[in-house]
């Protein structure tokens, strides 16, 4: 039996394309680890295996498109081999997650074959003074990373990585200060507050540039320029290597549009050396 035909691979194929919660992914991972046994487990036994409640197993089956767990189990018995065969040559779940991320990066590379959208985004970001950078919850780290490096070459970067009633006020302040564009990182699960904030930013006259996991993400309708970068879903929590890399690509494109970017970097390096900021 090839790795592609193994029970674990068939389970992985069943889960692909579904947006699962962390609890549901825990169930999925437990099923992959015990792929040969799962078609013969009751919902209670699967719940014990995954360390979740029995209703969570039922909700998991419904999320996959089945009427309930009995329907899911019938499906698994139909696609499972009559006699389970050890699959010693298959990769483990951690390797599968890495391979999936590599594939996501390949998709990103293919999308970047047309550099025009990223170049346009670079011009818009470089021309906005100040430049607000938004990212909440799962996307907060992406926004923080971009803002950290952007501040080394852009004269006024404003990080918006905390939600709340003052978020619109900070957008308004940026607009009053002269901002013309906003960069948003939007990752699953998409907070309603991000969609509302981007709608407010557009109404305020900002050009909204968004890095999202899909061109069909909820933020698409409130974005002027959406740059998709898929996230990995093979682990309990999403992996965002492609969105992070796309953020660095946007930094490069922005630097290309800032005539004093190199001078600012050299000035920072000189000051860092004088202060002994980094260990050599």
TrEMBL record:
<dbReference type="Pfam" id="PF01418">
    <property type="entry name" value="HTH_6"/>
</dbReference>
<dbReference type="InterPro" id="IPR000281">
    <property type="entry name" value="HTH_RpiR"/>
</dbReference>
<dbReference type="InterPro" id="IPR047640">
    <property type="entry name" value="RpiR-like"/>
</dbReference>
<dbReference type="InterPro" id="IPR009057">
    <property type="entry name" value="Homeodomain-like_sf"/>
</dbReference>
<dbReference type="InterPro" id="IPR036388">
    <property type="entry name" value="WH-like_DNA-bd_sf"/>
</dbReference>
<protein>
    <submittedName>
        <fullName>MurR/RpiR family transcriptional regulator</fullName>
    </submittedName>
</protein>
<feature type="domain" description="HTH rpiR-type">
    <location>
        <begin position="7"/>
        <end position="83"/>
    </location>
</feature>
<dbReference type="InterPro" id="IPR046348">
    <property type="entry name" value="SIS_dom_sf"/>
</dbReference>
